[in-house]
Amino acid sequence: MPGLLYLAIAIVGEVVATSFLRASAGFSQLVPTLVVVVGYGITFYFFSLALQTIPVGIGYAIWSGAGIVLISVIAYFVHGQSLDLPALIGMGLILAGVLVINLFSQSSAH
């Protein structure tokens, strides 16, 4: 269970850091830049801890898939990014893939 908790923290850190990249304006704005640097530091630290118990391919698939979907949702609400039907279908497929890996794949067994 700690591996999944570490992975969740890594995902949240990545989503926060990525959300502040735009506001950092090419790392010219101090506070958003600090959020990005600290966020990615937290992300990679906890992702490395998660990989002690979760296979790297499975961990990376979950981390990147969840990050893509969460960042897209945040971009929709915060930045007004439009999500058309193909984007929504693609994100649905990503979520379905993450669920299939977690629920049915023997590769994710510890």
UniProtKB/TrEMBL annotation:
Gene3D superfamilies: 1.10.3730.20. Keywords: Cell membrane, Membrane, Transmembrane, Transmembrane helix, Transport. The keyword Transmembrane helix applies. The chain crosses the membrane at residues 27-48, 60-79, 85-104. It is found in: Cell membrane. Its main location: membrane. It comes from the Bacteria. It is a multi-pass membrane protein. It holds the Pfam family Multi_Drug_Res. Belongs to the drug/metabolite transporter (DMT) superfamily. Small multidrug resistance (SMR) (TC 2.A.7.1) family. This is QacE family quaternary ammonium compound efflux SMR transporter. It comes from Devosia oryziradicis.
